Amino acid sequence: MNTILILHASGANRDGEAARALELAGGQAEIVHINQLRADERRLGDYAGLLLPGGFSYGDALGAGARLALDLQVYFHDQLHAFVDSGRPVFGICNGFQTLVKAGVLPGAPARLPNAAPGDSSAPAPGSRMAEMAARRVTLTANAAGHFECRWVHLAVNRSATVAWLSGLDELIFCPVAHGEGNFQVAGDDVLSDLDARRLVAFRYVDAAGAAAQERYPLNPNGSAGDIAGICNDAGNVLGLMPHPEDHVAAVQNPLPHKGGQLGLPLFQAFAAAARG
Amino acid sequence: MLAYPTPIRIEVRTAHAAGRNAHQEIVRGAAALGLPPLHECRVVRLYFLQEHPGVDALERLCTYLLADPVLEAASWGPAAVEAAAVEAAAGELPAAVVQVIEVAFRPGVTDIAARELARGMVEIGLPACEVATGTRYELVGDLSAGDLRRLARGLLCNGTVQHFSLGPIAVHFGQNAVAADHVESVPLAGLTDAELLALSKRRLLSLDLAEMQTIQRFYAEAGRDPTDVELETLAQTWSEHCVHKTFKAQIDFTWLAAGGDVRRQETVDGLIYQYLAAATEQLRPAWLRSAFVDNAGIIAFDDHFDLAFKVETHNHPSALEPFGGANTGVGGVVRDIIGVSARPIANTNVLCFGQQDWPYDRLPEGVLHPQRIAAGVVAGVGDYGNKLGLPTVNGAVLYDAGYLGNPLVFCGCAGLLPIGKHPRAAQVGDLVVALGGRTGRDGIHGATFSSAELTHETAELTGSAVQIGDPITEKGLIEVIELARDRGLYTAITDCGAGGFSSAVGEMGEELGVEVELANAPLKYPGLAPWEIWISEAQERMVLAVPPAALAELQGLAERWDVELSVLGSFSGDGILHVCFHGRTVAELPMHFLHNGLPRRRMQAVYQDPPAAPAAAASSVDPAPMLLAMLAWPSLASKEAIVRRYDHEVRGGSIVRPFSGRHMDGPTDAAVLKPLGTWEHRRAFVLSAGINPLLGHADPYAMAVSAVDEAVRNAVAVGADPDQLAILDNFCWGNPTYPDRLGSLVRACQGCYDAALAYRTPFISGKDSLFNEFNGSPIPGTLLISAIGIVPDLERCVTSDFKAAGSRIYLVGETRAELGGSLLHHLQGAQGGAAPALPPDPLVRYRALHAAIAGELVQAVHDLSEGGLAVALAEMCIGGRLGAQVALDPLLAGPDSALHADEALFAESNGRLLVEVAADDASAFEAALAGVWFARIGSVQQVNRLAFTASGEAVLELSIDELVAAWKGKSR
Hints:
Number of helices of chain B: 33
Strand content of chain B: 15-25%
Oligomer: heterodimer
Largest interface: A-B, 69 and 74 residues
Strand content of chain A: 15-25%
Number of strands of chain A: 11
Number of helices of chain A: 8
Largest sheet of chain B: 7 strands, mixed
Radius of gyration of chain A: 18 Å
Helix content of chain A: 10-25%
Distance between the termini of chain B: 61 Å
Strand order of the largest sheet of chain B: 16-18-15-19-17-20-21
């Protein structure tokens, strides 16, 4: 089955346009509510790819993506890791990216612990299987400006990142950010160089000519360390970014007077192709 | 097991500098309050658990849910159980180094973080318990306890929904909900007129004497007294908010000349019937689907879908609790759209605030500072719209001293619905089903409170009328109801807005009668009396009529989407509103009396022309500094600092958005949107607005025609078809029981009627918010006209920024010496002069321009509004970062041959647009405009200069850099 599952948890809101982007890109998409997975009406393993869309899952009331990250780790730990380990592509956009980071899936932590139902006394302590959430060294936090902001940005695609399907893309993507907590931060100075060394930085904020934003606002719209807009995992099949390439899949969406080029669509074409295998 | 001290208090601190700007805003806010310097402010998040889950569990909770392991650290200890005395708390802290203000919600206020914490605890295997949240501010500065209280009240804590402490705060936990059983009988028999009015006032019924007498007579005939549930039901259903008594009243209108002579006397047979709906009835274009029937108007979009549009106001709640008021204002108008079975797809908002630099020492008692109101409202609008995933694409922000005690918050929403998929006929036996949020004491008397004037005591008396919204619950409603609509699971639907269940159920059951069991309504907390459950305006609730056979399927959808569903009763067929509580009748009212018993009001209105005053001597204007002052004038200057806090891209359909140009910072005239799910064709739709309170001060009739013209010309400017535009009216006015307030309202309605016919734009929906007064002073009567219409081809949209040097600049539409109510006069402190009139044959020029746009003959179009030609040209230069050379001579030789150069620059005549045309297209463009007054006035140039000349003499010359600096101000 070639269908890509778009996961809808309460508060997801860019699932519809992500589905459209995938369809325009020649992919097939199905929006599935997380309760359908929990009720076993749908199984993650039956899908060729997973997309976590933008939005405000559970209102982001305890930090962006934090509650959905907990859902993933508590209810879908084994399914999700089996899916990731199978090499099938996983793509998180905005809230989906925040969720993958907070769940410890991006860039990925060493600890892998078995799944268990809450209250099951034979299983490891309920908290311990979430150790990878606590072991993470990167996060997405409040924008440096202290509030939500919506504006178009230029992204440089790192075509030599671990994600093979980025290698064929053009160098620049132009698309909007729309978030309050997109500020990529790390636990120590070594983390940025480690991400670089492992080729895990997938997207950076740049100017219109592709030169580094150098943490200058508004080119870097949120204060992210190293101008990092998106990262990936070591295996090269899990990718996340804060901006919204799904909102620039046709030239008519471009706000500049001279429209054309730098679409987000090729990213979805590459993702859909990766899902087809 | 050890007994731990409870409740538990958890503090989460960030170690990271990211987000410091938010803290700096508090430091700046303290300075604005005139407090001693605050050197630093640290914000600490607080969580409270009623039970101690054990140390391991607490550790897990903090690690996995509450504190970000990269940036934050959590600690815990026992929480205060009583409010700490200030002195004791201060003693524990390093004196004068760190001072503390802690803030928490009052009981019953929506706290989404607490709800998600409770759910998350269960998810990680902790025992369920009651939880609460708060915020701790650690302040470094030399503030006295009095200063701290001022800081808390002035900036950090809104007493309407929060409380604070200058030390560890004691929080309130919710409990399981059981309603109180109390039903009162309210004696009416024998009450004098004065006693009836006193009763109306005491119970916040907002009913006048005639209405109270009608109720008294009804119960005298019935031989009993009303229950409190019945009386409250009547007050809600008969409220200004729900039935628009003023707009339906018979009005004796007198129009006086400035000298006092009677110009005209007439009886207006209802403003809505005689002017607004009347215009619609005369026009009735084929594409109009529904006007004034539901809570939103509907027009045709394409072969499959219609478009719904509604604009609401939420003024009084926003005055008291700006975040919550604006938040629930958005939530409310979105439910109006859900209530016509449409999927909400875009939001608009127009905000009117007091001047942001208003001195604190001149702030009236009981009024929040305009800066605080603006910050809260903007945050509230953004929070709700962004979380619903709706692009906020069009609007305005206006500042005027008249809005100091009574800000205006207009919230609009557009939606998409399949043609013919909005069922409107509940059947006998159908179930009354409530979907969405739980019912609490929040929002009680919202409908009647909006029918009273604000005073400095309003916050005290009606705090329960204001709430904080829960957009994620509303998002679930949108999803479930869209699916239920497509599967045909309901026969009627309405939103639970003003008046709560009493209005929603009462309206739906108007024809059939209905039986309701209030005990079936899920509550947020205990202690609600039946009348409170019945009229609570708790947010995020919809009421559906559901055939019993469809209930199970609807229940399944609701469960999947985490939306709560309850069956409140059924439609009976006996024409009676029958409300029970645990089986006991608490209200039994004939629907006929409820909906038709309200006596029609007869009201007095007087409008007197303002005294004739000589127009300001035009020669006193120095054009260049005046243009810069206009660009920097807060209502006209760039709103980027506000608008970027709203998502204007979500759903991927924004074709023309709030910004345009090379730097994406130039203004646009209107929004063009492409609904998701309709990309197989190139048709799109426009949302635009017209509003000008300055003009209202001078002439409410001129304000109305100008607002309609502005909404229409803005829509046409971006590529909309002028023959497929519908409009909405939103009147915000003072207390209409004063003849002068009502007189200006009558004039504005007359302007609406004349303009709607002149532009052939039917009104499809409207809303009035009256009683906008603070301590006896009315706001400036303010009319917002919002337009929705068809853009035939999204590939042929136009923005206002100049595109290329060498293009020609045309002015379409005559300029007259119309400076009455203009920005120029406002900035000069001048009065009098002619206000902008209806232009001759306005539709002819708009049709011609639309044809030119459709023929791809134009590069840029911009409408002329406040500040006239000079401001419009400056904005086109700013958007394109290009210069222009313009000669005023064609205007001076135009239809108004007595025109002076300053009038040519700054007059605000209606029906005018600037157009950039490539040299190659000039002759085709001129041919397309045949029969319309237009003039080639200059050209776009690759220079850093905007220059105007008259008779070859320089009139005004400014660099583009100066224009940008003035317009963008500190948001640059």
